[in-house]
């Protein structure tokens, strides 16, 4: 059986009892980064053999993982943080297992996109998750343009190295909409900055961003909320 195990996105206290039980009973743990997963397993005193399953070796590692599944072994798939397959490896493995009639289950847990959405103060009743946009200016603007008229709240992931360029292109395509930028979620210095895209751009031009960000942008139906107050929430999380 294949189990997709969500792991903490920062605070290790967010691990679930089911996740721990699944990892403890697995025959193999398939990991995006065996070093990071090794630290997680060590923290909870779990010893299991790991199989590397990264974006750049999925095709090569897939047959090996499938051999274990065909043999009736329990395999737990984890990524560096959050839910497998969400902007992380896992899709190909899930598809292959389903195609062969191998049972697949998921142990739910932390996901940065949902946490950022609920903290953003923007409409949550309907949203579109777009993951990481293209790295270059032109393709990124075309990527944004697909959703320029979408009524749904938009959610993106972005690297600190491209965040300023992301915001500049977002303003060009969407206009100066209300948005939120979430960073270090569940960690000691969890931060959520809220305001118009121009406010976020000025902030991150003055204060170089660090760590991966989740950006939430109001959809075309939420433009009436554009006069929302520009604020920053900074929390210390145990």
UniProtKB/TrEMBL annotation:
What does the record give as the function of this protein? Catalyzes the 2'-O-methylation of the ribose of cytidine 1402 (C1402) in 16S rRNA.
Quote the EC number: 2.1.1.198
State the organism named in the record: Flexilinea flocculi
Q: Does the keyword Transcription apply?
A: no
**HAMAP family attached to this UniProt entry:** 16SrRNA_methyltr_I
**Highest taxon listed in the record's lineage:** Bacteria
The record's NCBIfam families line, in alphabetical order, gives: 16S rRNA (cytidine(1402)-2'-O)-methyltransferase
Q: What is this protein called?
A: Ribosomal RNA small subunit methyltransferase I
């Amino acid at each position: 059986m294949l189990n997709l195990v969500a792991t903490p996105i920062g605070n290790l206290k967010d691990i679930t009892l089911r996740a721990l039980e699944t990892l403890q009973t697995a025959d193999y743990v398939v990991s995006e980064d065996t070093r990071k997963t090794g630290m997680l397993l060590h923290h909870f005193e779990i010893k299991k053999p790991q199989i590397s399953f990264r974006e750049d070796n999925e095709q090569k590692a897939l047959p090996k993982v499938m051999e274990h599944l065909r043999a009736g072994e329990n395999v737990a798939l984890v990524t560096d943080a959050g839910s497998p397959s969400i902007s992380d490896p896992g899709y190909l493995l899930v598809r292959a297992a389903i195609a062969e009639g191998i049972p697949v289950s998921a142990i739910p847990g932390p996901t940065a996109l949902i946490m950022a959405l609920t903290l953003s103060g923007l409409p949550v009743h309907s949203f579109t998750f777009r993951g990481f946009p293209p790295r270059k200016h032109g393709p990124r603007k075309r990527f944004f343009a697909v959703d320029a008229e979408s009524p749904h709240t938009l959610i993106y992931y972005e690297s600190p190295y491209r965040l300023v360029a992301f915001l500049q292109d977002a303003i060009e395509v969407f206009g100066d909409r209300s948005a939120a930028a979430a960073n270090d979620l569940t960690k000691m210095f969890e931060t959520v900055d809220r305001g118009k895209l121009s406010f976020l751009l000025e902030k991150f031009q003055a204060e170089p961003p660090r760590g991966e960000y989740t950006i939430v942008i109001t959809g075309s139906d939420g433009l009436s909320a554009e006069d929302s107050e520009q604020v920053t929430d900074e929390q210390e999380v145990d």
